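Section 3.1: Structural characterization of target chains.
Under the original work plan, the team committed to producing a structural model for every single-chain target entering the pipeline before any wet-lab resources were allocated. The record below documents one such target. The sequence was received from the expression subgroup and is listed exactly as submitted; it comprises 458 residues.
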Amino acid sequence: MTPLRFPRDFVFGVATSSYQIEGAVHEGGRGPSIWDTFCRTPGKVRGGDTGDVACDHYHRHPEDIALMRSLGVQAYRFSIAWPRIFPTGLETTPNAGGLDFYERLVDGLLAAGITPWVTLYHWDLPQGLQDRGGWASRGTVDAFARFAEAVGARLGGKVAHFITHNEPWCVAMLGHMNGEHAPGHKDWPEALVAAHHVLLSHGVAVPILRAAARGAQVGITLNLTPGYPASASAADADATRHFDGFFNRWYLDPLVGRGYPADMVADYRRLGRLPANGELPFVEPGDLETIAAAIDFLGVNYYTRAILRSETVPEAENLPRQIPEPAAESKTDIGWEVYPDGLEALLLRLARDYPGLPLAITENGASYFTPPDPDGVVHDAARVAYFRGHLAACARSIAAGVPLVGYFAWSLMDNFEWAYGYDQRFGLVWVDFATQVRIPKDSARFYAEVIRTGAVGE
């Protein structure tokens, strides 16, 4: 097995998010979020699960920091619970208790030699803002600016890496188009408005964070999925183009100053999701310039690829598939195909089509339910293989010239996995949610060895 080496300054980290691990939803002055509300809506979350306790990270973060240190983790990406800082989102003065918690967390990380990477928004919008329209309201952009200023002012002297948003596509499309995530709406035009306001709030926050946290690097994280046509047909090629625009370019292009993709605007007009003519109704003068604020890095969340088979054009049905349906054994427990070559292709594409932008893998991981054996050991060989393949793809990409600066495994530990509740386990560390006992899995030891040696075998 030939070892592939990473640059000496490459950052190896782990990632989490506030609602998925913190618990303590009624402590420290925290207000309710849209996920507190969504979890209490019958039928929305598997098993009626909530994030009320989750991994109890709010109380157990010193233990979790020690665990990260024992694995040699160099950086920890976590998110700020907006309702801990502004309980309704409408206040003008931040909640000191919430800021105190995150400063204690940051201080603990720094004392352990772990670099904090702070994500401002990982989906837990204050319910008070949702009651006034949420991301469909332009007022939420102003509220996010206050949030960014408060966090930057308190943590800016200690935190050198800020991510404004995690996965705007999920916020807009899962939250407002198909209702799978909070707030659970199913309204296509509203989804496009929400997407725009998330991107706009990012652009507004970038200079605010730079002013409050001088010298800090500021970026945004997108979940990006490469598309592959199922056959050589023109119909499947067009379906792949549309998917790429819907999933990737609608967010990438405005961030780098290209505006919304013209082909997708035309598609959305044809599909009735935008007015048939005229300007985009949600874009005001100056918005696109604000969204295109220069960023220091782009966070990339990658889990799998998409294979596109046209359902509407007969031509697609008359050609054999050049990509067969993925076999069950090639999928994780959540149903996503394991395809590390897609990560390499994605990174090469980003370096080619969006040059000059440093990249960081801010999430990458796999869900497998592998409980402890009778001796209390978790042998998660499938997850080890997943990480080996994807880390090797990262190393090959760097060798090919991709400006990849870091990799954050998702996730540090098993946690609340949104609409799946606690059914899906992505963690490097097993969590017994009844006792809060943590057990590092074989994958944690594998990752620790990669960090220690700076190399991975293919």
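The mean pLDDT is 97.
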